[in-house]
Structure formats: structure tokens, C-alpha cells
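Quick bug: Phosphatidylinositol-specific phospholipase C X domain-containing protein output formatted oddly.
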Amino acid sequence: MFSRSILLQASAMLSMFYTSASAQNACNNSPDLCSRPYNNITFLGAHDSPFLRNEETSFSTSGNQYYNTTVQLDAGVRLLSAQLHKSNDTGLAQWHLCHSSCNLLDAGTLEDWLGEIKTWMDANPNDVVTVLLVNSDGASTSDLGTIFSSSGIDKLAYTPPSTSMLPQTWPTLDALIGNNTRLITFVASLSEGASTQYPYLMDEFTFIFENDFENVDPSNYSCTPNRPTGLGSPDAAAQSGRMFLQNHFLYQNQIFGIQSPNETYANVTNGATGFGAMGVALDECTGVYGKPANFVLVDFFNMGPAIDNVDRANGVVGSIVGRKSVSDEALVQSTGSGVMERGNLLAVVLAVGVAVAFGA
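Here's what came back:
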């Protein structure tokens, strides 16, 4: 007879082996997603992924997320968005990730951020990640392509059959993983159009439409297409064949008309039920378009938690493997007197100063 301790050790080893094997057979944390086309999956997106509200930024009220991009990916986020600006702080023009202005919140260079994403993707070969760059200062495809190449992430990039026309079919996650073309990149927008030299840089609004994104009241959420202009109605958007990116985040108005991400209401905003809840909005837009949104972009991704709504939309509740958990609570800052507070008054003052200086 085997001793009890040997049996327990064997059971533990078998469990570890099973978990490892399951993770290898999963795509984006679920085996049920492997055979689905890219455009038949709902991906959780971190709005302004690199712009943090934590100790690193002194809890800047311009931050949209509490946890960095690596933690976001570990926790199931698969769409990462960022604003791109030209910075001259070093005397040389560099492309930085900045929130509205590099004087307000500068998260570093695009190259460093792409390097962080590549490091994660190299360690997670069964995952497909989408990057959406808001091209605020008109970077050219050559500017972007050079940086993608320098970071090495271009080696993972998916190239569509055409950069000017929607594909008849999108590849499955299995196909993207098998070909190691696991990075999907959209840019909003490319003023000179897509490039034959860097065809993996896709103009967002050729392939995607969005609903409105400037909401300060939970009653403002809508399924109606807002961008690109000209689609007009949900029917026109659906018939265009574009994928739907559903913006679902809330701003709050501060002094001088400045807007900042609303963290106070985030648990409801990203929750399943309640006035203005993500789960309710997903269901509403699913009814309008006949299928769930392809991407749902949120602030403070860990709250709600938002990922639960995405799992439900994908029908994969109970089949998740390899995903790391993260607290669904807001991060708070100690004032040193034992009192905890959200945000940072200094960041608000700086935001006001920037707005006044730039005539915002």
C-alpha cells in the first residue's frame, strides 16, 4: 500500500500537470476561444492602459488604471489603448505616451511600452493581444514602424490581406497563435493611409467603429455609432462589416471644465447590474447589433470586475485557465495622518495649470 503522504504528493503533481496542460491548450485563457474567429470574440480593453493612478504617479487624477500593462494582461485584458504624442523634453523629438499633454502625464516612450508588451507575449505564447494607438500628433507609418521594429514586437504582428478593405474572414485565435502573428495593431488614425512597408499598422476606422466616448453621466451611454463619421445608424454600422468597439467609461467634470476618469462610480460602471453598468450596456448593444461588441474599453479594469462581463459575453464562464487574479478594489493613497483618500489634489492643480497654459 502507498503511504498517505505519497498519494497526496502524486495527487498534487497530477493537478499541476493538468493545469499546465490545460493552459497550453487554452487561447486567451479559455480552450473555448481557440476555434473562434478574431471578430467573433469580445476582448476586454484597458482604456489608456499606461496612464496610471497609483504611487508611481502620486495618484494622478489623470490616470485611468491602477495597475500597469503587465498586470492588466495577466488579469485578462487583451486590448491595450494609449495616446501617442511627440515630446521634445530631451531636446530630441521622441514619441511618448502622454495623457492629453506630456506636461500632464507622461508614461514614457512608445518603444519601452511595446517592449513591455513583447516581454509578456513572449512568456505567453497562447495569447493574442490587440494594441490601439490614438495618434494624437500625427505620427507617420514610418515613425511608428521604425519604433515597432526597434522594440522587436513587429515580429509578432498580424498583417491583413488588405489594408484598405475589410477581410472576408478573420483568422481564428488558433491560426494567429499557430502562425505567431499574435499582435493586432490599429492606429487612430493614419493621415497618409496604410503603408506597404508596414502593412501590420491598420487604420482603425477602416476596420472598427465606435460609440460615443465622452460621457459624464451614466444615462449618456449609447450603442449608436459615433466614429467614423458617416455611418449614422446601427444598421449602417453593422452592414459595413466593421468590428464594434464599445466605449464604456465615465468622466467627471472638474474646475475649469477639465474632465478626469471617474473612479468613484467605477464599481458600478464596470459591474454587471446597476444604472449605467457595463453588463447592462453590453446586453443592450448585443440586442441592437445581434452579437456582443468585439471590444469593450474601460477605465480601472480591475473594478466591477469588468472581466466577468466579458467572460459572460463570450460564454466562457467556468472554462478560464491561467488567468491571474487582481484586487477588485480601488487603490487609495495614505496622507500620512492615517487618513486614506482617492486621487491627488496636486495632480488636479497641475491639470488646471496645463489647461490654462495651453488655452484649453
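Actually, after a second look the formatting is fine. Residues 10-22, 337-360 have pLDDT under 50 and may be disordered. Closing.
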